[in-house]
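Assemble and predict.
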Amino acid sequence: MEEKKILLQCDYTQGCHENIMKALIDTNLVQTNGYGFDEYCESAKKKIKERLKNDNVDIYFVITGTSTNQIVISSILRPYEGVLTVESGHINVHETGAIETTGHKVIVITKELKLTSQMIENYLIQQINDKLNIHVVQAKLVYLSLPTENGLLYSKNELEKIYEVCKKYNIYLFIDGARLSYGLSSLKNDIKFEDLPNLCDVFYIGGTKCGALFGEAIVISNNDIKKNFGFNIKLRGALLAKGRLLGIQFNELFNDDIYFKIGKNAVDLALYLKNELIKKGIQFYVDSYTNQQFPIITKEKYNEITQKFEVSKWSEDNEFVTIRVCTSWATTKEIIEQFLNMF
Amino acid sequence: MEEKKILLQCDYTQGCHENIMKALIDTNLVQTNGYGFDEYCESAKKKIKERLKNDNVDIYFVITGTSTNQIVISSILRPYEGVLTVESGHINVHETGAIETTGHKVIVITKELKLTSQMIENYLIQQINDKLNIHVVQAKLVYLSLPTENGLLYSKNELEKIYEVCKKYNIYLFIDGARLSYGLSSLKNDIKFEDLPNLCDVFYIGGTKCGALFGEAIVISNNDIKKNFGFNIKLRGALLAKGRLLGIQFNELFNDDIYFKIGKNAVDLALYLKNELIKKGIQFYVDSYTNQQFPIITKEKYNEITQKFEVSKWSEDNEFVTIRVCTSWATTKEIIEQFLNMF
Amino acid sequence: MEEKKILLQCDYTQGCHENIMKALIDTNLVQTNGYGFDEYCESAKKKIKERLKNDNVDIYFVITGTSTNQIVISSILRPYEGVLTVESGHINVHETGAIETTGHKVIVITKELKLTSQMIENYLIQQINDKLNIHVVQAKLVYLSLPTENGLLYSKNELEKIYEVCKKYNIYLFIDGARLSYGLSSLKNDIKFEDLPNLCDVFYIGGTKCGALFGEAIVISNNDIKKNFGFNIKLRGALLAKGRLLGIQFNELFNDDIYFKIGKNAVDLALYLKNELIKKGIQFYVDSYTNQQFPIITKEKYNEITQKFEVSKWSEDNEFVTIRVCTSWATTKEIIEQFLNMF
Amino acid sequence: MEEKKILLQCDYTQGCHENIMKALIDTNLVQTNGYGFDEYCESAKKKIKERLKNDNVDIYFVITGTSTNQIVISSILRPYEGVLTVESGHINVHETGAIETTGHKVIVITKELKLTSQMIENYLIQQINDKLNIHVVQAKLVYLSLPTENGLLYSKNELEKIYEVCKKYNIYLFIDGARLSYGLSSLKNDIKFEDLPNLCDVFYIGGTKCGALFGEAIVISNNDIKKNFGFNIKLRGALLAKGRLLGIQFNELFNDDIYFKIGKNAVDLALYLKNELIKKGIQFYVDSYTNQQFPIITKEKYNEITQKFEVSKWSEDNEFVTIRVCTSWATTKEIIEQFLNMF
């Protein structure tokens, strides 16, 4: 029966961290105003600002990652403007056109898995030089994920150079942090949480994949983007009546650094899995140091594993299948050992 | 301190029914697939279909009411089509343009609080006769709320006549059931839950205001609307990664008719409040038999009450204030007594 | 045969002023760059600026009035903002949802035929005071037509007061001048052409109904609206490859004040018609001093007239029909006499 | 002075064919109804149907090519659907996001300059097999240009195979014929005009670049697409008040096969230019048999030529510039000789 399989295909197969569940129980009958105008949201925003050592950011809670991307991007761009990304960017491939439905082109500038400052600058120089430019969508925003859709990290230096180019050409930078916890907790990461407001104009702290039932926290550091931002949340259908639920959850995630501890546990398990598989001679699609690992296995092995485990099929050829295996805040070492025992 | 006031201004000030909370706790670490492809969603759909005595409907769970309206309406209409409603219709006044943002006009055909089949027919006859009609948005959908934004009910006969006109002119009927529990539980209501699929093309069962933390269940009975409906949920940002949360909640709401019991309790308390205030000589804006009551009180009394209670100010003139008082699944008789003691 | 009727139902039944036709013939084989980057467009812009005695405006030529309204409004508004108008506003009733298709609500604030500064201020005060305002579309632009859809004029003082309120509440004012020539040429008009840039943020000079084959000239006086405006024209499909056609036409319309002379002739004939009908005891729907007249005639008379003339049916009851009769740049006194002979 | 250069950079630098100008003069003061409900439009539609030997198509006239693409694509697609094209497709690169502004993704499936049936089928198979497909825009329409953006032709057999795949997977095929005259008139072309309704669901006959002042004729053969199509024209701002202007022009273009004669003259001159340059050892970017030619010349030669001629710079490297040279209905052999004398 499919229900009995152990699910490793993604990082949102289970509910929430126990502290969050406890807080939801404790506050269940407390009365609050709706739409995020409540004390839990206030408290959660305060905690995040303190952890960022930055009081000049605006914070908004939104229910889903798709909404977050849609809201941030459509609130920034004017009708003739578009957003730059890599071909594998989440907004390009896995949002059913959620960005285009707001009227904006997703401009793919590379098949590489990561953007570089040079790619962006080259594109913008061409845009400026193009004599036909009234016929061309104007790039006004760069979108990247930290970690990327394939588990890769940007170094602090890489982000600094990207942001520098953005500022030089007067365009914005938005960092999708759906798996931010798993990125910042990686041993290869050199970006501090409190660096983020200085490395981009707006980013979001993913909750759904990092310990919450659902919810993402948008952090806006650039004043240009702040004005009337909340209206965009409502008009895109993403304003929760019981907005407190988002405040309660982020309040717990930023209590005692739970958000980062969750990430560390997941990444440690992912790297343990990676290293053990390497020892067994397995090769990987990319050299990921986050919670997503992409081993390349034989079709035979794939068929064997998927009797017991659900994994994502990333790509395949005649002989091999590249799979995605994800750990999460809830993954245990025992499960990873069971998985490794299949090899 | 504002926090200490008792909140009666709306029906979403508290968490969720205890059965739901229990189910969320019990299932928290169970693994499921994402996006609503899980056993809880399957079970909840099955229960709703059984309660509707109808196996031919399609059911989808969505997070917010705004998203629900946006998704249903934009999935039905072609670019040149619009949706008919009353001036006070939720989609006209309280969605920050969420319908227009999908490209469609909200066509107001009356200042009355309820639609009638005659109003709709008159409008459609005029639309057909209008020689300039290539310049006019074509009405293709009727939107109404049950109960309405002001707590009013439609009788079964009224809905039958409205739906008949819709079918006659080949347009669709969509019923917003954000407060459906409180409508169907009213002693003045003569519509059975299982009548609904036969009284319209699509409706939704409100969870957010009726016992759930969040969530609405869309029920589609017209086959024209069913095809590929799920894509619309994703592209509007309303597809929950942990979709099971919606399944778990509706599973409980439709266990042992909790959904309707919740409604009955709230409506009983609202009518108790109404009748007691009438005895004290208070007049009402409308004659509501649902969980929303609109007493008209003096400004003095308003100032006095709002020291202890939060209520919605609906309108005011020099002397009087019309307020909205809402009961909910969580309201107790004790609270209502305290409120009545202010008079 | 319908083809033989004399058409008085609108002001766009014939081609263009003879000077324009001559210029089109003369320039036909001249080579120019596309998209409005040509010497005729430059010259026409220069002439309009001179006639406005204002060098600080930006001017753009667009093909249709619908596009013009769509482009101006959607370029100004952010996603959660809407445009205020009267119920009979062209953008509300005769654009097949062209404004909503760009994502914005058309907010109707009165059933009156003209806006007043007081109406606008009342609406904006309510908007600011509304505690629920995150749920409400924010008015950011006022739209009015000069003359109105029903041939009425605004006085200079009325416009000054409206614009003052707009500036006080930090919203924009857009004047639709589809029939501007017929408005400014009216003997009851006290607005000078060169006043317009100071009476609003953006307006347009209608060509289609005032002597051109097609084309409208957008004049932007507020710097906020100028930036990158041209991109909006292209993305809405309204950038003519042979943009010179618009320049050539406006060049002629603003040669020797032809634009205003055309208007005067049409208005003189309309007022002659009006006065003669008044002498015959005919009543009028509104007291128009522009090229559109709305006599109220018996059904019998309507049936008689429409054997020979095409007129617009504006409304009707059991006994009477209100018709619209339009003169234009091409109407002759002879035709008006023929029409009057029917009474 | 730039004005004195001879313009060869595009095919819309001059007015219209003399027959059209004559018809515009002759009809200028004739009265007709607006919006295309006139005898000239009727006549033009009749002529096109006769030339197509097909009475079952619906024909609509639209002002610009961008509008045409926008209207056809947005009228066909539902919100979650997208349109397939090559990377160099006009809708992908030169419409300032006009397709995305209607809410739809332009899905690029190849960097090649032409689509093949195999590419389309591969993409659609992957779309069907993709387990995550609720997260992916659904391709529902194929867009291609005949000739392409780079002057290439599709053979009848290539189009037949593409259309077969479209029908197999239940998606539509739309052919952009902005330069149709120059494609069908090529000696290498084996498609007859009357084949087109059977080779796709909808196509358009370009007027702007092929002898008209402006205007494109949309021809719809698939009944699914016909219903209420006209409303889309109005809501996108592309319905000309004096719609007759489009009828008058297409009436002339399809009189005595002028449309095809124009094309032949332009293509003959383009091939003369091509062959002469080949004799002089010049290489070409693509092997075009239509009115657009793309010689690759040295930077030195480029600088020399552009003293006298305006050409489009298509791309460049350190040594060479690829230029676009266009002939049109108005190009003379004398001009081409002058151009050739530069080599």
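The mean pLDDT of chain B is 96.
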